């Protein structure tokens, strides 16, 4: 695991998430990343971030790259590590690693690009200055 990750979220693999091979079905990893990203913002922007930023910070996923390295299995506890490693004008790049809890072996590496989106105008908009500042402070850059 990349030791530069400051944030992680834990979850346990549920029966409904495994496939016929007895491993987590690949599409569920996208859900895991989404849950971790949501909890990352809850940590960085505050418990009420969805309400506070509902008119100014609404992200949409525009790109996701996943690299599967090892399978996760039923009832394993996973740590989803998340870091925002680049913040642009209207978008940011997040890096992820998934490991088993207390085991540094990487199960999955991922990178996602999210854009701040104005749904009423169907266009990207700048990331609010206070959101940018809080992410930069948390990440140390």
From TrEMBL:
One of its GO terms (molecular function) is fatty acyl-CoA hydrolase activity. Residues 21-103 form the Thioesterase domain. Keywords: Hydrolase. It comes from the Bacteria. Belongs to the 4-hydroxybenzoyl-CoA thioesterase family. NCBIfam families: YbgC/FadM family acyl-CoA thioesterase. This is Acyl-CoA thioesterase.
